[in-house]
Amino acid sequence: MEKKISIHILKTIVLFLSISVTSAIAQNNELPEGYPITDRTKTNLNVGWKFHLGEVSGTPEAIDFDDSKWEKVSVPHTLQLVSYEMDSIGESWVQKKYLRDFGWYRKTIVVKAKPSEKVFLEFEGVHNVTELWVNGKKVGTHEINGYIPFHFDISNYVKFNQANLIVVKADNRFNETISPDPHRSDYVKFGGLYRDVYLVTTNKLHVSYNWEKFDAGVHITTPTVNKRNGTVSIKTTVTNENSTPKKCKIETRIINAKGYVLKKITQSINIAPNSDYTFRQTSGLEDEDFRLWSPDTPYLYRVNSVIYDEEKAVDFVENSFGFRTFKLVKGKGFVLNGEPIFLIGVNRHQNYPNIGDAVPNSFHYNEALQYKKAGMNIIRLSHYTQDDAFIKACDELGMLVYEEPPTWIEWGDDVWFSKLESATRTMIRNHRNHPSIIFWGAGINHRGPVPRMQYVAKEEDPFRLTASASSPWNGILNAGITDVYATMDYRRTEFTESDFEMVMEHGSSPNAEVNQFHISRYKGSKQNIAAIAWLGADYNHLLPNDDRWTRDYMTNYAVLSSYRVPKPVYYWYQSELIKSPIVHIADETASKNGKVRVYSNCQEVALYHNGKLIGIQKPDNDITKVNLDHPSYTFLFNWKEGTLRAEGLNNGQKITEHIRKKEGKPHHIEVNYNINDQPFYAGGSDIRLAHAYVVDKNGEVVTSATHNIQFTISGDGNIIDNGKINANPARLYNGVASIYIKANDTPGSITVTAKSKGLQNGSATISTSKFNPNEIQKNAKPIFDYPIVKADIGGEKQLVQHEWLPWTGKSDKDIIFKSKLYGELEIKVNSNDSIKWHGNSSVSGELGFIASDGLYTKDEKLILEISNLKKGNYCIETYHHAAKKNTKITNEIEVVITDANGKMIKKADDHIVAYYNNETTGERKPLFIRSNISSDGKTPINLEFKNLKKDRDLWLNGLVLKQRSN
Predict the structure, then answer these.
(1) Reduced to 3 states, what is the DSSP secondary structure of residue 401?
(2) Cα separation of 951 and 861, whole Å?
(3) Crossing angle (nearest 10°) for helices 451-460 and 414-431
(4) Residue 951 belongs to what H/E stretch?
(5) What is the DSSP string of 211-256?
(6) Cα–Cα distances in Å, from 50 out to 168, 560, 741, 919?
(7) Does residue 883 contact residue 957 with C-beta atoms inside 8 Å?
(8) What residues does 609 pair with on adjacent strands?
(9) Do the beta carbons of residue 808 and residue 796 sit within 8 Å?
(10) Which residues contact 69 (CB under 8 A, 6 or more apart)?
């Protein structure tokens, strides 16, 4: 006689409630599946500004001011384009006058919002003091620092759904109260509205900005991180700017990289008028839902929080985070996720030649990608807070970051320090959720730790390490009050005796010899945790010309050129740090003077000249390179003509090769663009570099060429050049000339042609894409907010697994299981024999309370029938551990699935090693079977489990059912 058992669960859990929202703003209509529609909008204002440099007659902040003769510009924007040689200016690095001007920006916008809503202007960065007017009225001034974000509340100044005039004065004049002024600095203080600008509208019940105060915005921490599970704590501060109390609910969803909601946490509170409240929500992920963030696997989760006024969704914010843990361990050094790792990377200045700090997001991402492709795992952001886009790129690519507030060598009075402290707090609050950031700078560069900066950093963020920003020639010679002694080494300085140490700046050379010396030396001690080269890309500076310094305007020893073209040293980093086989013959800027340098991670390199073997060598056996994994290969060969071929050998077999021909006479020009795998947006906010390579007839870059390259452009774009900066024709640097281009307002194609007397022209075409100012729409990703049913099956006295639903039975009578989570979902269990319930055994192991009870039959078959499941694809995981002592465990189960796709038969193989002990599963889950099923919304689904060992009971301990995206 067939027995039927089903389950009835009337209970629902907050974790699996669905979201119901209605559209408030047309701007948010076209969003991916599951993305919240609320009152919040975020509009990029980068395009369509009018600009004037310096003094102007009249009142440019006035509505009726005539700006028709002003220049049309887009953001990012620099006050003044400069030449590669910094206009050969005589001023040195205090820089009181050069580029220390101010500019006016005007733009008309329409604020599409309700009069009851809030309106903000958000600036990611403006040099250096910012004044704002809206519709002719002064809104306010920001004069803390030029490297941090800020915002203005303009709600009381705008005309809703009408034209509004925005006027910004970006004042980059010398200011003794704002760091790094009033002192010298080894970087140029460029000006302008140089980072993104946004118009943000929200409900009066909304999430505040992170930088407003300590408890503001969203603050995500991961207080516990283990190998297979982690705890995440989320603080979200909601401001009620209404004159009445608001019953506020927050629904926070933790979403994996594929878009699936893993956890949902809901809280409600009444927030008094004109006050705020910080929600504190903590949850965790484990097993298949849990992934660690690391340089090799930079796994990011999303936290999407929706704010409700009563039951109406009025605001949302989304942030990313990653699970990682790090510490300093004696004898191991820096330990990330339980594994020692030596950090190797470069320092990064954000500026580019000609355009200064006005760098688009595409350039920030591409530069981070270049360092990642070199195999590096850490970047020091010297010597100031850098763009959100670069930090985000490091999160996504798996690059650790050392970030610091803007200083250099000297400091000022209490007002100066107060502003630096405020800038430090803003930096930390703005970037604290990024898993890439590991170190905060807590010193004055070159001078070492500063108590005030250390205490501010630890007060704001006690979870990260602080670095001292020291030098070996003055100040304390250990970490002092900070966590890590971060020092400089351009010669050969002694290591600290008492602390963990990183060389935050070490020498670099195009041929990689200097880099290898320092990295090898610092890797020799487990107390040393990092070697960070000075520097990533060449940059402009204003060295003085005196007894100590020799005047120059551009460095020449970085890993990349100032236009981000790799030098030979870049390929040594690849050979040292990446896993895939590589062999690379350095070009003639490094292979010269009777030495051919080859970079490879192979065991040996065979070098041939014109087909004749020169020699087979192992890596350089030099005391200065002894701690490297893959030192360079130096072949003593006077290369005068012909072709070199390097073969990388492992166990005597060729794995890879590289061919380089001796540079010949310049023959023609080849043009390409610095970025080809990202959209090039129209409108002028995005730009590209066109690189013109002078090559010989064999296609080798002629690094010694001295031509001037004339660029022309056709199509839907323009060259960035004011005719005063010697940009066009352009000079060659190691055989490459570069020019910036921007796209017109209308998408299309752009062709850049490069020519020079005596050379064949070169050209390349690139397409542009429509610029979407809707930041929410542009960045939104699908959210698959599907319920997850977890049912723990057992008899009376069962111990229910934490955060699972009980499915408890004791009789053979039908018990119906229904759940509104999936419509009228009904599950039944059938068998040809009687079904017995088991209440509780003592079973250890993962999900031990699932394994300790259940139902079972002596029949060889157990049928799970799922009815009224809405149309879609699903995954069901069932557990089959024999919980009773002294009963035989079955490991061989056949599953017959009958669903909308037909019938499929499979043998359970999710357990690799069989189970033999009733009382424990070890550190594994109980024996489980994972099946994909498909519902047509009408026909029941059957899963027939068949015991292939007839002398054993067939068990069912629990199940997990969740929907998958189509």
Answers:
(1) strand
(2) 12
(3) 30
(4) none
(5) GGSSS-SEEEEEEEE-SSEEEEEEEEEEEE-SSS-EEEEEEEEEE-
(6) 10, 34, 19, 76
(7) yes
(8) 612, 644
(9) yes
(10) none
What are the tokens at 726?
Answer: 């010697």
Tell me the C-alpha distance between 363 and 76, whole Å: 12
CA torsion through residues 66, 69, 71, 73, sign: positive
Beta-strand pair 854-857/49-53: unpaired
Which pTM does this prediction carry?
Answer: 0.94
Give residues with Cβ within 8 angstroms of 575, minimum separation 6.
582, 583, 584, 599, 600, 601, 630, 632
- Enter the tokens of residue 698: 């064999």
Structure tokens, 909: 């193989």
Q: Using alpha carbons, list the distances in angstroms from residue 298 to 293, 301, 468, 666, 962.
A: 4, 10, 27, 44, 26
| Helix then strand then coil, % of the chain, to nearest 5 | 10, 40, 50
CB of 567 closer than 8 Å to CB of 561: yes
Q: Indicate the burial class of 814 (C-beta count within 10 angstroms; 0-12, 13-18, 19 or more).
A: exposed
Q: Of 383, 407, 675, 632, nearest to 532 (Cα)?
A: 383
Residues 6+ away with beta carbon under 8 Å from 653: none
Q: For each successive 10 residues of the chain (966 residues), what is the average pLDDT? A: 36 29 44 96 98 96 97 98 89 91 98 96 98 98 98 98 97 96 92 98 98 97 96 98 98 97 97 98 95 98 98 98 97 97 98 98 98 98 97 98 94 95 98 98 93 97 96 92 96 90 97 98 96 97 77 91 98 98 98 97 98 98 97 97 98 98 98 97 97 98 97 98 96 97 97 98 98 97 95 91 90 70 86 89 93 91 93 96 90 95 93 89 93 95 93 93 89
By residue count, the chain amounts to 966
**Residue in 309, 320, 258 with CA at minimum distance from that of residue 40:** 309
